[in-house]
Prior knowledge:
Phosphatase 2c, domain 1; protein-serine/threonine phosphatase; alpha+beta; seven-stranded mixed sheet; PPM-type_phosphatase-like_dom
Amino acid sequence: MCIKEGEEVLDGMENLSLCNSDHHEDNKSWPLNNTQMGDCPNSSTDTTNFTIGLDITTDSLTLESICESNAIIDSKENQMENFLPSIRSGEWSDDGGRDFMEDTHVCIADLGKKFGCNILEGEAISFFGVFDGHGGKAAANFARDNLPRVIVEDADFPLKLETVVTRSFMQIDAAFEKKCCIQSTLSSGTTALTAMIYGRSLLVANAGDCRAVLSRLGVPIELSKDHRPDCLKEKERIESLGGFVDGEGYLNGELGVTRALGDWHIAGMKKSSEQGGPLSAEPELKLITLTKEDEFLIIGSDGIWEVFTSENGIDFARRRLQEHNDVKQCCREIVEEAKNRNASDNLTVVIVCFQSNLPQNVVVPRSCGVRRSISSQGFQHLKSCLSEDWILQ
């Protein structure tokens, strides 16, 4: 939830024909250099969610050579290794501290098979997404129901996947505006974070404050940045487009995020011009090559990250996976732990594992001054100890 106040609306959405197959942009094909993410500070049961067949082994090395940023750079040895991700996933969600649910998510093992796309010649592209709605759940459900299909139906899919994903986010945003013009009660907004896996390539696209964190031998690697008004680059972009951040840290006094789909009903947030308005639907992308050191990816709505740091989330998930190696159960335990930590928002988490084996027991180096968290059980035990007056008189 990232709006000061909102109202739940109906979510009856039908699929729309949103794609324009005639694209003439002079774009490079995937693999490409990834879009750099801004240097922004991070903060922290919907029965209609989609989960489709998620236990596959990818045998494609089509996109093995990918240029990455210096933040996540693989050694030449890792780039050349014969690593094949074995993909399995789990998910869990809960109303959390809210009276109603506005989060939703989608998990699709094979986009091509799901939407009858034959150009992949048997190679699977997996798709995972978390959508955190605000002011109602219509925008989140609309994005969940339509974004995967729009991506597949784009004329440049899958060879220009970065371009396709960015364009699809924008098309969904524009299509939802038209939908709300016809049915104003659907007016709402949503953040969106998606992850696509093709061979050894992982592409993360983010608009908003959901977060994706990769475990690389236990070391947390953030693959997205929270788009919040306290991000300096986002604030500069907002002000250049006529927007402002109020004293409480809200965009135009209304929203706690600077990028989202929908919200066309809020005056001054979006414009149909090429330049756009202060609230942008354009995602930031992160593209990496998976290696044998990459264990799993956590995708969570902001309610999860309000009570987990990225490091704490990775540590918690690794311990649970080492205990039972059940991805769905691990997701449930993360959500339950977030509730025990008094999370105030809706809670959704998706975990995608790249290995079939348990995470290795490794000593993870920690820098000085790292913020640490205590589990709810430990906190309750500490409280009971203090209440029993164990302090020496």
